[in-house]
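Homework-ish question, so no full write-ups if that breaks the rules, but can someone show me the predicted structure for this set?
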Amino acid sequence: MTATATPPGAPLDSRAQAAARARRLLLGQHVLLLIALILLGTYFTSRLDFFLTSQNVLTILRFSAVTFIVATGFTLVLIGGGLDLSIGSGMAVVGVTAGKLFEAGVPLVLAFVLGVVVGVAIGFVNGFIVTRFRINPLIATLAMLFVLLGVAFIITDGRSTQLRDDGFRFARENVGGVPVPVFFLIAVAVLSVVLLHTTKAGRHLFAVGGNPDAARQAAMNVDRFRLGMYTVAGLYTGIAGVLLASDLGAIAPNSARNWELYVATAVFLGGASLTGGRGSVVGTFIGVVFVSALDNGLVQMAVRPQIVLIVVGAAMILAVAFDQRPKGGFR
Amino acid sequence: MNEHASPNGNGSSRAPLLQLRGICRSFGHVRAVHEVDVDLQRNEILGIVGDNGAGKSTLMKIIAGTVSPDSGRILMNGEPVEITTAQDSRRLGIEMIYQDLALFDNLDVAANVFIGREPTRGLPSLLGFLERRRMHREAAALLERLNIMIGSTRLPVGVLSGGQRQMVAIARAVAFEENNHILLMDEPSAALGATESATVTELIRDIRGDGLSIMIISHRIPEVLDLADRVMVMKRGEHVATLDARSTSVEECVNLIVAGAPAATGQA
Ligand SMILES: Nc1ncnc2c1ncn2[C@@H]1O[C@H](COP(=O)(O)OP(=O)(O)O)[C@@H](O)[C@H]1O
Ligand SMILES: [Mg+2]
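A: Not a homework solution, just the prediction itself:
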């Protein structure tokens, strides 16, 4: 069946290539990250009786779910050769919008849906700015970070308020012992894996991010892909924003502060790259669980929050340094 | 003029496959291509030589539709054709391999061969599911048919050698074409060592015929004289001579490239 037996006089470097493949498999970023996660879990378990209890694992999972959803959007954007720094502010705008609507008497489901629609609109605007005005995505979405933060503060008059009605806090509930956000995690994961790794659109997104010029020569509409990926990322920001607000049970304009840090660290640990064309849903998932466990464990060891920021930031630097290490065979 | 041409093009099969007439293109004050006429015959390998900046790449990009000419006409089988985008030229059966190869280092060999033309199942167009197995099978068969030796179609192109990358680019360009197609190659062996370059030359020799015509830009004069049927010399945007590759020596060819005219007589 596999009639690809190398013809006589096979090139010398096919053995080197097989070795490169084996090395990549063994030292693949996912595998290394999984090992690191196991070591981290072992360490925290040895220091904290509480760490591996089912209640704490569920807490980590609940936090992971929201982070994963927004991190998957971040991953899509990186794969397509973009960047989105506005996710935290976008989540804040979405969260306060949904919260205000609910407070004003809008039914829960409708408030949720409208919040998500706001997220989609934010993603579309990001994509529009980047593709139409040809602004470097780092600058465009950094500007959006502040614009959206301003919007969130205007909507709330700069105040954080606790919602009196507990009906909004569905994200705190469990169904069959599983936190509600985990169901959203599963839906987003399945949708993203299918889209990214099995469809022609996903393949082309990797192409657009890996080599935009070549993608244009292959008749792909690079700008339309980028607009689309920012919009899908906006959808995920919307879902995550509503879930976070629901989890907190509050209308809080600064609720998603520092989320850029956690999300970017998780995604880079998971193997995505600033240079575009690389990343995976599975890698991002492991990265998110790693960062959530790190945060959870450090906080419970009573490490000061400022130190936690420094540790997570250092992890991001390590992840990017690992990504940019010289590779044999690359230019 | 073409009222007797039959709809399937057979009636005008006497005309060259591709004709360029009076092609001009300037960038600001630079006349990159000036009043160039070229004929490409069926099954022919036409070499293009000339100094850096002679306009070779620009001419080729005009045929590929990625650079638009300021003036001039393009004819295929004697009929005028409109080439304003890369899609236009591809629809006419013209494939170009760029100097940078336009490969995707982050994708594997099969993905590169099929990029933009992936077979899918299920939903239409972009949302269709990739037929991965089929792509690997057909890519492997293609590589075997072309005698291209690459360990596996699952290797990312980023780990391949320069020669292997060049061969993947060639395989992609010839994979889907029917008859009467044209392959444009801009310095396919520029970045290769002698052995790899010889392998690529061998591949180019192998893929001609079957209605495939090739235009190839090269700096390696002995190689192009050996490979091509005719060699076109360009200088400062102009087409200064076309040589019969078999009866031209390397010195004659180099003299023309440098002087822009035959050394002694000054008459083409
Ligand atoms: N996109 C461009 N913009 C400005 N000048 C260009 C451009 N492309 C080519 N040129 C100029 O046109 C001339 C011919 O270039 P080119 O066709 O690349 O030559 P060759 O391939 O023979 O080395 C050169 O002087 C080059 O600088
Ligand atoms: Mg050139």
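Now go work out the reasoning yourself. Hint: The pocket of adenosine-5'-diphosphate (ligand 1) is lined by residues B 27, 30, 32, 50, 52-58 (CB under 6 Å).
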